[in-house]
UniProtKB/TrEMBL annotation, chains A, B, C, D:
Reaction catalysed by this enzyme: 5-O-(1-carboxyvinyl)-3-phosphoshikimate = chorismate + phosphate
GO molecular function: chorismate synthase activity; FMN binding
Top-rank lineage group of the source organism: Bacteria
Protein name stated in the entry: Chorismate synthase
Statement: the UniProt record of this protein carries the keyword Secreted: no
EC number(s) recorded for this UniProt protein: 4.2.3.5
Gene coding for it: aroC
PANTHER family, A to Z: CHORISMATE SYNTHASE (PTHR21085:SF0)
Keyword entries, A-Z: Amino-acid biosynthesis, Aromatic amino acid biosynthesis, FAD, Flavoprotein, FMN, Lyase, NADP
Amino acid sequence: MPSTFGNALRVTVFGQSHSQAVGCVVEGLPSGHVVDTEALGRFMARRAPGQGPWTTPRKEADLPRIVSGLNPGGATCGAPLAVVIENTNTRSRDYDNLMAVPRPGHADYTAWAKWHGNQDVPGGGHFSGRLTAPLCAAGGIALQILAGHGVRVGAHLLSVADVRDEPLCALDNAPASRARLESQLDALADGRTFPTIDAAAGKAMLAAIDDARRELDSVGGVVECVATGMPAGVGSPMFDGIENLIARAAFGVPAVKGVEFGRGFEAARLRGSEDNDPYRMVDGAVTPVTNNAGGALGGITTGAPVLFRMALKPTSSISRPQESVDLTSGSDATLEVHGRHDPCVATRAVPVAEAICALALLDALLSFPPEPQA
Amino acid sequence: MPSTFGNALRVTVFGQSHSQAVGCVVEGLPSGHVVDTEALGRFMARRAPGQGPWTTPRKEADLPRIVSGLNPGGATCGAPLAVVIENTNTRSRDYDNLMAVPRPGHADYTAWAKWHGNQDVPGGGHFSGRLTAPLCAAGGIALQILAGHGVRVGAHLLSVADVRDEPLCALDNAPASRARLESQLDALADGRTFPTIDAAAGKAMLAAIDDARRELDSVGGVVECVATGMPAGVGSPMFDGIENLIARAAFGVPAVKGVEFGRGFEAARLRGSEDNDPYRMVDGAVTPVTNNAGGALGGITTGAPVLFRMALKPTSSISRPQESVDLTSGSDATLEVHGRHDPCVATRAVPVAEAICALALLDALLSFPPEPQA
Amino acid sequence: MPSTFGNALRVTVFGQSHSQAVGCVVEGLPSGHVVDTEALGRFMARRAPGQGPWTTPRKEADLPRIVSGLNPGGATCGAPLAVVIENTNTRSRDYDNLMAVPRPGHADYTAWAKWHGNQDVPGGGHFSGRLTAPLCAAGGIALQILAGHGVRVGAHLLSVADVRDEPLCALDNAPASRARLESQLDALADGRTFPTIDAAAGKAMLAAIDDARRELDSVGGVVECVATGMPAGVGSPMFDGIENLIARAAFGVPAVKGVEFGRGFEAARLRGSEDNDPYRMVDGAVTPVTNNAGGALGGITTGAPVLFRMALKPTSSISRPQESVDLTSGSDATLEVHGRHDPCVATRAVPVAEAICALALLDALLSFPPEPQA
Amino acid sequence: MPSTFGNALRVTVFGQSHSQAVGCVVEGLPSGHVVDTEALGRFMARRAPGQGPWTTPRKEADLPRIVSGLNPGGATCGAPLAVVIENTNTRSRDYDNLMAVPRPGHADYTAWAKWHGNQDVPGGGHFSGRLTAPLCAAGGIALQILAGHGVRVGAHLLSVADVRDEPLCALDNAPASRARLESQLDALADGRTFPTIDAAAGKAMLAAIDDARRELDSVGGVVECVATGMPAGVGSPMFDGIENLIARAAFGVPAVKGVEFGRGFEAARLRGSEDNDPYRMVDGAVTPVTNNAGGALGGITTGAPVLFRMALKPTSSISRPQESVDLTSGSDATLEVHGRHDPCVATRAVPVAEAICALALLDALLSFPPEPQA
């Protein structure tokens, strides 16, 4: 189903940019987890609009209301958990001219081709980045449950335009590297304003974003995400492996055009002797010495950090005039987009990457754990 | 389910490298399609082992037997179509030492961590590249049905190690470019030995592969695949869009570590004004002037060619000694892999990319077509 | 997934008896249907509590709020349609003693055995009959869409205790019988207070229910449901046939213990020559002369009315003292149930049967329609 | 998907009556189970044709070949297990006249309405009772795995026409009754020719079947099935409960027209005080004193035996002339069915009921077990 993903853990997302509400239903959460609503609010605030010059001025409380799935003690109770987030600040009028003239790079035209005018146009409807809010609500709860299993998830902006952050220290699985990675994750979780490891890189990214904004344009970026603490043996072969689950969810995030694991595309240039991760016994456990695989082989975790990157194209809604067509008259047209848009959607996609990573990994843990030993 | 994918069209793959047979069941094929078994055989021969110096010496007839799903006239009849391919040439003895010492980069260890010794070890079991044979059988039939809808799928080796082929002419959607793309597809379908557009690049790739083989090593590569003729409006938002369907299937192909669409990771460096594909009316139809999106926006086709690339890491089974562990004794060990292995799995992944593309697109056409107009 | 059913049309139900809200998400609705909210309200009122002496005194507005899935014109837009129904009148205190002492016949004990105390106890949690409200919201919309396809669904109380209503005239497919069936459906849709065809039977049922209530007891009943206007060729063999889809949904209605189609259990006593429905050409169309099959053969519609019955056990929550156990102390205990309960859940299950029938048939029409002819 | 069912355990059935082979793929079997192929053969022999005067003379070896899913030691290995059963004895000629004139009561006409002539007609194609052979292969393996968990499944013919066997002693959960039930199951498993508890009833049923056969007619019957040893807390609310899973599978068995659990339809005539199963502590465990519920409440097991009945209509293929139509000419026609058919399909449905019960319960145990206690 288009707006649903997962196996034993299943998330269904609903809502449009300007519908009464957006939200999600999460089935299959383990029972007994007391949701930390404050931590959830903090997590969701990281993707909320209106935080700085690099995001859209649309301000929303984005308060997720958990309307079902908890028992009187506030713990998950085995029933589907539903989250409703009201849409309080919508300005549909801004989108009036989009009814007929589709924005290049957006789903306006493809939605029209599919639904022949029945689609909900304002704000991009169900295709809006707004739909990542319920994804983050679901993912934020998954993050809390994973933390109880010793799994930690963190992401940062690896690049914006041509500016590049220091990478997460996750391709090398040596003890010292693991410590470095943990300190990177601590710093990212620390709440600093802009999600980079290297503050100077962050500053340069902000400048690049501001340049684009001032030129009525937008820029793309790459988000890198890691999960530590996943035990070996989780996942499955072929079509429901760790990579399949994460990739399917990641391509559900608006603007994502590429997903790679471990060395990713770079591995295509390597020799096997360079790319293979040797094993050693470390503290009595089988341990990959390096992590070029990104934490999974054959769809199943190796015990090393799960590492992936997702590429986001530049925001398609830009204010400069663009060539388009008028769907009503069937003639060429020029489009000027009004409304409020992030000049770089990658910035707000950082917590979204954590959310979908958490959902995919919790699903893997619940659906495809290591089998019980006889 | 791990070994199943698709919605209205569903493929379930079974078999292990050294089981009695491998095969697949395909549910949801439209009825009335007379399977061209000769064309199917030719398609499957493209991925069969033993074709040249760059592939494994294991020779298999790979004759797919369609044991159900056809009516007496040889046409699909609405019932599940099952394909059985016998495993006739297996040498399990080669794998005896792998029972205890997992190959770096392969799923040997992760399967052990999941199934505690119950997994089928010889030849990599269900994780073997052998399982791409039934995928190609299913995909080969999907290709025939798509051809009946005017959809054509073709792939080539874009790169091996640092050698790069000319790209498919699919990022530019101008009429001249479309013609150039068709001629590229014609040449690829022509049956030339090595699947590149530029013969010189192919020769250089073969040299690179041979270098690796002689050094008891392996190399990675990138496969690029395109589908032309998909109408606009096919697919769906969020988690079952064109990209999600293709990516989920692509990561089911052994050794794939990255998937990107259109400009892919490069889009992350662009401005919106560069990456957005403008629309123009061409011959009365809304037409994206360029195709940086790779044929899909919001998970739904634009009418431009669907274009993706998948990165394959180097073959993990290499003959040089590697550091590993002995799972029985729990101590460090050195591994020397015997058996027959391709030094570059990317070469045989070319028809596999076509197969999974065809399956994903036919599923999209059947599951998420444009809605009928009122 | 436990709380989800359907294929191309998928319904996910959320909520507990005493959670903030109950609701559902419906994916896959055809776009362009303007929801008639007034008609939806009337339909839902038929299952609402507090209507007469035979139902629970709990009164709820049961106003379904459609928070997503509609475009500005009030028509379905292709995005998931979400319904939220607030729980405004809950008296959790009534259930305090049920925390430890499970009600015989209810899911209290089995939920405890599954979730070890994390389950939401008040009002039966996710197992409450309250969850049929969102099912009716989804089903009410499906009924409207089916009506646009010429499909009509109606149900009545066939029996309560030993009192029996006149059956729907749907086992005989003769033109006169069809007319009689239509007039039965007209009468049932007419809004008469109690859903029987024969008013005298209704009166006797009410008396039987009142008897039970006065004796602090409850009674069971059978609901019979029919759908006319389904074209032949809809559905599929084996596990997603018309019967499978309806049965899976029907057993999701609390208290249902049996489901049968056409002659149902009676067919087990017949000869083939009695049970087979002969075909004749009627007005140029292949037509089953009788309808012992209940409108489906091999899981696929015959064109005759789809007919099923579902048996509901007596309400398990009764006020007389019952033998139970104290789960805390692990000792025998006597239970006296307080709270408000229908003495006969079958009465309110009549519109619920229509709802699940509509959802199952609309799913069948969207997922498994007759194939397009070449 | 039509020919697939299950969640964590998933069965896909393929084949037609006269295709090269029938078979199935089973995904999600626990690893490490050594398949007892002799026991599997004995189980499958119980449904094989040609056993006595009450079955079709078509004789088939029905030898299931397990072509994948086992490791070299013959144990399940985590990969999909595929079973292929060759169709060796097919006489398609018998069905020539059915191409145009559909058998009343069979799926001939509905398949034509769906696939417009592309369907595989001979022997009923994918709708044939032949497809229960792979179901029994899958179910026979599930039975072996369940036995390892202390779960035992058995079924008998409760009735044929108006002849009734003694019921299974499963509605009363007292210790003495449990012992009686076990002895009934022992006797049924003992291999006696005809699957009744009361030999005299079996004799009378055989006579009734022979009467029908001699009169070129057929009779229906009811199969009753029980599973003992299921722990409490297995299953889930709403649409994937024990009843939903079993019912969905049961309606996949050709000729099934009704399914009921515990008291079933009889419960609709009872009072709550009669139908509710009281709890008592027995040997330190919460125990339902009676089992009117049939072992499940709210879709979750109670710990009492799971008990269901399924009604099978009389075999539709009878030799007496019947009224039908000629689909080619669109005119009324008279049909005389040739070919070999059981006069009572219910007899061979006894092991099939066990098979689908085992598959549904193993799926429930794997998909929806009691949650691990904190």
